[in-house]
Amino acid sequence: MASPADVVAGLLARSLLVELPTGGPDLAAAAGRLRARPLLLGLGSGRDGTTGLLGLPGWPVLELPRSSVRRWEDTAASPDLVAAAELAVLREWDRVHPDADAESAPVPTADEVAGALADVVADLPALLARSCGYLDLADPAA
User: Residues near 79 by Cβ (< 8 Å), separated by ≥ 6?
Assistant: First the structure.
């Protein structure tokens, strides 16, 4: 029987397991090569109204802060995790400035994107462990 270290090494070699850096340019580089693909839907508000549910109609799977649910839903429209973080920054700007024209939103700064990217990545363990989606290569041809 293979040791756990050998199993992990084999999965890493076949790109079936991904280790993400915890921050900085290494995280941005790795996140730019990955995309998240949601498999479950947002089902609306959770028990106390401050959370959101992910699942299938009649089958809630995971209750998370609304911000986490929004970030997860944004990954469906994003070509990679960095783009999902950029979208999260713009979405937050829209939330804070509900009466402003979306065209007037500033371009997200590198620091804002890095902070949002850390949040996107921090959400992944709970989402992936409960089969809410999967990670894939952002552009297999690249």
Answer: 35, 138, 139
Longest alpha-carbon distance in the chain: 62
Question: Which H/E stretch holds residue 66?
Answer: helix 66-75
Q: What is the CA radius of gyration of the chain?
A: 17
Residue 97 backbone dihedrals phi, psi, to 5 degrees: -120, 65
User: What tens digit of pLDDT does each residue of 109-125 get?
Assistant: 999 999 999 999 888 88
Q: 38 has which bridge partners?
A: 133
Q: Is residue 77 helix, strand or coil?
A: coil
Nearest Cα residue to 20 out of 12, 11, 31, 9: 31
